Amino acid sequence: APRIKPLDNNHQLSIDDLDSIKVIGKGNSGTVQLVRHKWTGQFFALKVIQLNIQESIRKQMAQELKISLFTQCQYVVTCYQCFYVNGVISIALEYMDGGSLADFLKAVRTVPEAYLAAICKQVLKGLMYLHHEKRVIHRDLKPSNILINHRGEVKISDFGVSAIISSSSAQRDTFTGTFNYMAPERISGQKHGHLSDIWSLGLVMLECATGNFPYPPRESFYELLEAVVDQPSPSAPSDQFSPEFCSFISACIQKNAADRSSAQTLSAHPFLSMYDDLNIDLSDYFTTAGSPLATFK
């Protein structure tokens, strides 16, 4: 059978043709399963979203997701189809066999600057696409939403999903799990734009470099809110990292959104090109440095 293309109406992907292989992720709003298409043998990641909200809102969300997930960018995870069956929304996504940056970090603990520059280049290309072409904010950029594969590709995932879930009344009051990557203006409930994603990017890159989340653990959401909003921004230790890396992090993690650089501006930052002559091979790095993943194909 011909391979299925994203949101292809000629070869309609049917949820009945997907065989579940195993659960590969669990989140606040549902699970992600590795599935295989019966006829083509293609693998997909099936994200199953369960929300306790009215039927009419769920139907509308399924429709919105279809529109928002139609992206054509090699730095954003591809959506193949969106299903709405028995009150559950399921999204068939491109399967990224290296898992997430969060999984990878657990295995390697820290990522050297040269590899981080190569990873960051791809994430910024994804953010430029979302911010400047799609004109959307990701809103939930964090290590578990940046996915990798054995080809050395890095892609942003879950864009659109987080925006729609957060706008549904069911999730408005649940500040669970991921608030710690939120920018100060967002965490305190003020107006926010695409520069909020840049703050999150800075925290993610700093965490990858140091092996620790940039803020010390807090007992409660309010203590974290106080730290993010009132205390000085985290920065990269200048005795451990290059001036270029420190400068890049500083350009992202500015408490005032207007002082942050855009994705476009950051893509020309010297940190991203300083290791170019090393010809970094992320494919080799992901497959050898990470935990040997049974799912690498």
Automatic annotation (TrEMBL):
CDD domains the record matches: PKc_MAPKK_plant_like
One of the GO biological process terms: response to other organism
Reaction(s) the record says it catalyses: L-threonyl-[protein] + ATP = O-phospho-L-threonyl-[protein] + ADP + H(+); L-tyrosyl-[protein] + ATP = O-phospho-L-tyrosyl-[protein] + ADP + H(+); L-seryl-[protein] + ATP = O-phospho-L-seryl-[protein] + ADP + H(+)
EC number(s) given by UniProt: 2.7.12.2
Top-level EC class as recorded in UniProt: transferase
InterPro entries reported in the protein's UniProt record: Kinase-like_dom_sf (IPR011009), Prot_kinase_dom (IPR000719), Protein_kinase_ATP_BS (IPR017441), Ser-Thr/Tyr_kinase_cat_dom (IPR001245), Ser/Thr_kinase_AS (IPR008271)
Keywords: ATP-binding, Kinase, Nucleotide-binding, Serine/threonine-protein kinase, Transferase
Protein name: mitogen-activated protein kinase kinase
Gene source species: Triticum aestivum (Wheat)
